[in-house]
Specification:
Blueprint lengths: L12 H22 L4 E3 L4 E2 L3 E2 L5 H12 L8 E3 L6 H13 L20
Parallel strand pairs: 1-4
Antiparallel strand pairs: 2-3
């Protein structure tokens, strides 16, 4: 036995694969505590309620995103991305977040649609 998983022979592919699966599961559980992940959501392109939002401008899509996040618990690893219209605010955030290991900016026209293939 390795943990609660029965292993008959580690020299076989099946036994070795079983050990790898066990190790991955337990390592993943450990990582959720030691290295929690956070998902910053940048945009919403479609919802069941609103349909296809890609032709709508970013400020409209941001409103939909904020509405969706009203139902997310406060300590959730899901967060809506920060949005700023003022370049100096965006520059300040960029400098602050870089120190924390967060890098990158997504810049979009405030009144344009979401072009196909655009990240």
């Amino acid at each position: 036995m390795f943990g609660s998983e029965p292993l008959t022979d580690l020299s076989t592919d099946r036994g070795a694969a079983s050990l790898v699966r066990y190790a991955r599961r337990h390592h993943a559980r450990e990582l959720t505590v030691t290295e929690p992940a956070h998902l910053a959501v940048f945009d919403v392109l479609e919802t069941a309620q609103d349909g296809d939002l890609r032709r709508r401008p970013p400020q409209d899509r941001r409103g939909v995103l904020e509405r969706m996040f009203r139902r997310v618990p406060p300590r959730s690893p899901l967060t809506p991305r920060h949005a700023a219209a003022a370049p100096d605010v965006a520059q300040e955030w960029y400098e602050e977040k870089a120190v924390a290991g967060i890098e990158g900016l997504m810049i979009k026209p405030a009144n344009g649609p979401h072009p196909p293939g655009c990240g």
